[in-house]
Fold each of these.
Amino acid sequence: MSRHSSFAMGQSARFATTRWSLVLSAKDRPTADARTALADLCRAYWYPLYALLRRRCRDRHEAQDLTQEFFAKLLEQDFLKNIDPAKGRFRAFLLAAVEHFLCNHWDQQNAVKRGGGRRGVSLDLLPFDWESGESRFLTEPSHEITPERLFERQWALALLERVLDRLRDEYRGAQKQALFETLKPFLTVDQDSIRYADVAAELNTTEAAARVAAHRLRKRYRALLRDEIAQTVATKADIEDELRYLFVVLSSPHSK
């Protein structure tokens, strides 16, 4: 059974195996699976943290140094010792962890050169695309925004981007790439504004079939959104709070 189809069997039945809950469950007895799960999360959400550090640092090179050093420290053998299961969310843990890391760094004034890392720590699981990250940062809004606010904004955008990528991959795997690209714009518009007759003409199908296809796309998107959020929280109950968080962050005046 595929990862995606397993979602349909019920979120409660599979929640204990999500990435962040796996990490938290291994707090007292760290495992290789938990470390891999944490590396997966770091790889998926490294850019929001880089954006935060980039806003705080003198230049891109210092931000890259600090980003690499932070993740190297995070993935050490004792990476779980500072995790508080009560925090519930990987997002909150990551932000608190980097703040603690920065305090120590500024106090010690001990910058680590990019590429060196910490002895015995491999970042092979985290292939950072520095050029892409820097390009994204340079397109950030010019208005004043705190590093923490920038982190929240980029976290929300990164999560939604991952959901869209997963949805695209599913449609591509089903040989429905053209259908996905045609219907994708309707994920973010009011359903009443969709001209299904035009969609049907573009897809060479009936208006009724176009409506059904759009409905299925939106339904699957919502399921994948909840599933992606589940990967970053500790309990099923946290999912609704994270959904509300996404809405607040992306609807704020500084989210665009």
Note: The first helix runs from residue 3 to 7.
Amino acid sequence: MLRHPGAVRSAVLHEPAMISVVADPAAAQASVAAAIQEGVAQGGPPGAVDRFFRPVAGDATWDRVPTDLRNRITSNGETLLGMELGTFEAYRPGDSAFAGITTPTHVLVSENSPGVFHEVAAWLSGRAGFEVVRTPGSHTPQFDHPDELVRTIRPLLRGRGRT
């Protein structure tokens, strides 16, 4: 959006994990770290991914994900542990990062997601003026409310706002 604003008509940021902007980043990181450590102890890197998803998706939703897809997701444990975690948690964009964004941008937050995602959405709305749009479900609405998710984001991506 900053480098090629003409190439992006509209953007939807779904629950960005901007841990640094919440009231208690250490507590947010500690809960994730505890779940990851428990998962590693129980099942190695795939177990870590499993424990990572359960709090944000909900056990019932995560258990309903088709086994082959859940296995494909959990097989990315080495990537989560070795490349992703620990690389983004301190990121906190300054006002200048938002100043150049001219693309209509919305922050999508699911109603039943952990509070940290609601905090981030409120911060982005206050800091960058992005509209916060709510959708039913958990952090994984593509699994628990896919039809509602499509109905929510389609008009946003088309640049027409919510219908």
Note: DSSP finds eight helices and three strands in the chain.
